Amino acid sequence: MIKFTVKSLLSSTEYDKQVEVKGWVRSKRGSKEVAFLPINDGSTIHNIQVVVNLNSFPEELMKKINIGACVCIKGKLMQSQGKGQTVEVIAEDIEIYGAFNEEYPLQKQGQTLEYLRTIAHLRPRTNTFGAVFRVRHAMAYAIHKYFNDNGFYYLHTPIITGSDAEGAGQMFRVTTLDMLNPPKNEDGTINYKEDFFGKETNLTVSGQLEGELAALALSKIYTFGPTFRAENSNTPRHLAEFWMIEPEMAFYDVNDNMDLAEDFLKYLVQYALDNCKDDLDFLNNMYDKELLKKLNMVISGSFKRITYTDAIEVLKTSGKKFEFLPEWGSDLQKEHENFLVEKFGVPVMVTGYPKEIKAFYMKLNEDGKTVRGMDVLFPYVGEMIGGSQREENYETLVARMKEMHIPEHDMQWYLDTRRFGTAPHAGFGLGFERLILFMTGMTNIRDVIPFPRTPKNAEF
Ligand code: 4AD
Ligand code: MG
């Protein structure tokens, strides 16, 4: 039996052909003689209309087919008389896979995204989440395709880690010790030597450090995996578990890094425009009337490149009243990022941050004050990418680690890359869910990952 998807049937012109449609009933209307059942199977945002001649089917059967029921319908594919569709299926045989008498939690329309979060196990059946998850899939595929086509190797970095060198946020501990009665050292601290790995371990906040090891062998690698941060940031842009893409390249400086980030993001936007048109049109109509305009803005011009020092100057002389006064030496706030992106009307890449506010591994500039960090700022999302050229000089790196109180003994493996055949290199991290936020026009990061993990929330 040929398997038909709703998507393939909708583009078929083989009229009068016997077909089989399997999917969920999205609504039910009609008259005494006929019922119209739009069926969706998630293969596309669009439904296929099934026409049921009520004289040919028992009333009992038809009563069971309500919104949300799952059915298998055999029938004939016909050119449609109705508006808004080219084909429909005239039902000849109906099998019910799943029907129910209770009230369906997904009523037809008008349910808030907040409510849908409480039924995240069912929300993929809505048009909205179908669209979002299809776009999410397309982006994951495009990311692998981009790197593969450009000579990068996909590297799997560990999820359980024994180092906390990133300083990128609080970590989640991984342990098999008895929490009520952990083994103790003489000074009363917990004896992690008796733990599963014989040391303290956590879930990783980033695959970068291991990524660097591989880049200094394979030249161009990328990671794409889950990362974990236990910071208590209850914002529409933070998750405790999120996916990150981290390319790392030997022989790249910070400018090469920016070129790659810009080319990569443009490729992804173009890919979505080329391959997710129906879903983007839907999201544009439903959630963000500017979505397509914003996506086109990304591909149509060059990103703005500006140093941190110049960005602070722009903010200071803007005449705008910020809640946090822009000051050289402090991190850019959300309101500052928004202002910059709005002012330039394109994504903004900021470089040359004060070393105090960035990670120890960023390459120090000649001025001794700033580092070759690079953040890419996007409308609404804010920081889409964070990255840098890395400090490849052994002595400078060790000095930076001392300054920032990073224990050297934990990091010998990392420092070895600088001892043996070091090389200039650079890389960045793209937050996958931040990308999907931008691509879909959704406003809360909880709505672009199937099962969000946030403070006090690990349901499903
Ligand atoms: O700027 P971050 O912390 O950089 C790193 O982790 C580097 N090791 C990356 C690298 O150079 N290889 O995080 C990178 C990106 C951010 O720009 C943001 O898009 C995303 O990860 N991100 C988060 N996304 C969702 N929820 C959170 N809590 C996030 N924290 C960071
Ligand atoms: Mg960052």
Structure explained in plain terms:
With 460 residues, the protein is an alpha+beta fold. The protein has two domains: 3-98, Nucleic acid-binding proteins (OB fold (Dihydrolipoamide Acetyltransferase, E2P), Beta Barrel); 123-170 and 205-447, BirA Bifunctional Protein, domain 2, CATH 3.30.930.10. It contains 13 helices and 17 strands. The chain has an eight-stranded mixed β-sheet with strand order 7-11-12-17-16-15-14-13, with helices on both faces. A hairpin with a 7-residue loop joins strand 5 and strand 6. The longest helix is centred in the N-terminal third of the chain and has 23 residues, at 127-149. It is elongated, with a radius of gyration of 27 Å. The chain starts with 5 loop residues before the first helix and ends in a 20-residue tail after the last helix. The relative contact order is 0.11. The model has no long low-confidence stretch (mean pLDDT 95). 4-amino-1,4-dioxobutan-2-aminium adenosine-5'-monophosphate binds next to strand 12, strand 16, strand 17 and helix 13.
CATH topology of the largest domain: BirA Bifunctional Protein, domain 2
Q: What does the largest sheet look like? A: 8 strands, mixed
Distance between the termini: 35 Å
> pLDDT under 50 segments (min length 5)?
none
* Ligand identities: 4-amino-1,4-dioxobutan-2-aminium adenosine-5'-monophosphate, magnesium ion
Rounded Rg: 27 Å
